[in-house]
Amino acid sequence: MASGQDKIVGAFLLTFSTVVFVYYTLWAIVMPFVDETYFLHAYFPPREYAIRIPCVLLVFGLTVILTFLSMVMIKSKKKVEKKAA
Amino acid sequence: MTRATEAATIFGITATIYFALLFQWLPVTLPKTVQEFTLPVLPWWVLVSFGAYSLGNIGYHVLTFRDCPEAFDELQIQISQAQADLRSKGMTI
C-alpha cells in the first residue's frame, strides 16, 4: 500500500472534494427551493456568492497560470536570443 | 464520427439548449426560481463538480495505490541476475 503520509494526503483530498461538492450542490441547487424560514439557510452565505466565488476563483486561477506561462515563454525567448548573440 | 467531433456535437447541442432556455427563446415558461437562479448557476456548478471530481479521483487513487511487493521482489532478483550475468562477461558493476 502507499506510504502512510501518502494515504493521509489522498484521504484528505477525497474528503475535501466530497465536502466541497455536497456543500456547493446544496447551496446552488437545493436551497433556492427551500422555504426561507428553514433553519438550514443560516449555514449558507447569500446566494449571489454561489456565483461570485467560483467566478473569482476562476479568474484568479487563470491569471496565475497564464502569468506563469508568459514568464516561462519570455525566459525561453531570452535564452534563445542570448545563444544567437 | 471522431471522438472530437462527437464531443463537440454534444457540447454544441447542450450549449444551444442551455442558451435557448436562459434567454427565453423558446415559448417555455419555467418556474421563477429556476429561471432566475438555477439556470445562471448551472455552468458554475458543472465547473465546481468537475473540479471536485478531478481532485477526488486523484485523492482516491493516491489512497489506494498498491505498492506491489511481489513485483518489487521479482525485479530485485532480475537485477541481481543481470548484474551476475554482466560481471561474468567482464563488465565491472
UniProtKB/TrEMBL annotation, chain A:
The UniProt entry's GO biological process terms, in alphabetical order, are:
dolichol phosphate mannose biosynthetic process; GPI anchor biosynthetic process
Q: How does it sit in the membrane?
A: Multi-pass membrane protein
Q: Where are the transmembrane segments?
A: 12-30, 50-74
Q: In which pathway does this enzyme or protein participate?
A: Protein modification; protein glycosylation
**Location in or out of the cell:** Endoplasmic reticulum membrane
What InterPro entries has UniProt attached to this entry? Answer: DPM2
One GO CC annotation: endoplasmic reticulum membrane
Say yes or no: keyword Transcription regulation present: no
A single Gene Ontology MF term assigned here is: enzyme regulator activity
Keywords for this protein: Endoplasmic reticulum, Membrane, Transmembrane, Transmembrane helix
Q: Which intervals of the chain form a coiled coil?
A: none
Q: How does it assemble?
A: Component of the dolichol-phosphate mannose (DPM) synthase complex.
This molecule's function is given as: Regulatory subunit of the dolichol-phosphate mannose (DPM) synthase complex; essential for the ER localization.
| Family in the record | Belongs to the DPM2 family.
Name the chain's protein.
Answer: Dolichol phosphate-mannose biosynthesis regulatory protein
Lineage per the UniProt record:
Eukaryota, Fungi, Fungi incertae sedis, Mucoromycota, Mortierellomycotina
TrEMBL record, chain B:
Q: Which sequence ranges are marked TM in the entry?
A: 7-25, 37-56
Which segments of the protein form a coiled coil according to its record?
none
Q: What is its main location?
A: endoplasmic reticulum
Which membrane topology term applies here? Multi-pass membrane protein
Which example biological process does GO assign this protein? GPI anchor biosynthetic process
Q: Where in the cell is it found?
A: Endoplasmic reticulum membrane
Keywords (A to Z) from UniProt: Endoplasmic reticulum, Membrane, Transmembrane, Transmembrane helix
Spell out the GO cellular component terms annotated for this protein, sorted alphabetically and separated by semicolons. dolichol-phosphate-mannose synthase complex; endoplasmic reticulum membrane
The family database entries (InterPro entries) matched by this protein are listed as:
DPM3
Subunit notes for this chain?
Component of the dolichol-phosphate mannose (DPM) synthase complex.
Q: What is this protein called?
A: Dolichol-phosphate mannosyltransferase subunit 3
> Which organism is this protein's natural source?
Modicella reniformis
Supply the source organism's classification.
Eukaryota, Fungi, Fungi incertae sedis, Mucoromycota, Mortierellomycotina
